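Structure in, sequence out. Go:
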């Protein structure tokens, strides 16, 4: 990594993750996660149904890419779809956060919903850099 990477109050450089709570040497990072807590409104269980258009669409794409075996696999992948049926639970994101940890420091930060993608990307970059330093 040549250029330091920033997200909110965090800075990732070649060897260290800098947080408001302190610095974390990448060689010591044991956890770098993007977490999303999803909750249900508590109504009845959702149903799944087979969708003929989804099966056909999956089979066409799979067949075009991988021949007959791809058509079968693509058809199976497209075969189950969730259907919104009255009484099925509605899921919503309750909270989003990123968590970084070393043996000496745990840092957690709540993320605004509009910054989820950037937070996830940053957590992946930290995880990748830490893995590189653990070799």
């Amino acid at each position: 990594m040549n250029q330091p990477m920033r997200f909110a109050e965090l800075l990732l450089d070649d060897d260290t993750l800098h947080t408001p709570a302190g610095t974390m040497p990448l060689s010591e990072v044991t956890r770098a996660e993007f977490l999303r807590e999803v909750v249900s409104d508590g109504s009845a269980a959702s149903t799944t149904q087979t969708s003929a258009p989804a099966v056909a669409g999956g089979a066409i794409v799979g067949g075009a890419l991988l021949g007959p075996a791809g058509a079968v696999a693509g058809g199976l992948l497209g075969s189950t779809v969730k259907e919104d049926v009255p009484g099925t639970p509605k899921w919503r994101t309750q909270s989003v956060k990123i968590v970084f940890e070393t043996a000496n420091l745990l840092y957690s930060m709540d993320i605004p919903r509009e910054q989820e993608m950037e937070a996830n990307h940053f957590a992946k970059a930290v995880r990748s850099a830490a893995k590189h330093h653990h070799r």
